[in-house]
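Worked Example 4.2. Consider the chain below.
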Amino acid sequence: MPAPRKYPDELRERAIREVRSTGRPIAHVARDLDIHKEALRGWVRQAEADAGERDDRLTTAERDELKELRKENAELRRANEILKAASVFFAQEIDRPRTRPSR
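Applying the procedure from the previous section yields the following structure tokens:
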């Protein structure tokens, strides 16, 4: 479960919109809105990536897809380990000499 967000989504959107529309420095907008400037800088960079203006970082959609693929990969690895253990178990059962039950 991700950590709760310190800043509401509405504030994030407003701050990004203000930086992008006014051209004011991030530090000034952050100070006016009482936001940490590095948090705002990250938000602006992510918004630029999502808009296709940056190609040095993943978009939000790509980030979400990567997260899902990593989760699926981990599940498949666990399933593979279980299947390997089961195949070893059954191979041992097949190799074991059979004896007749005594009456």
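The CA atoms of residues 25 and 40 lie 11 Å apart. The helical segments are 9-22, 26-33, 37-50, 60-95. Compare this with Example 4.1 before moving on.
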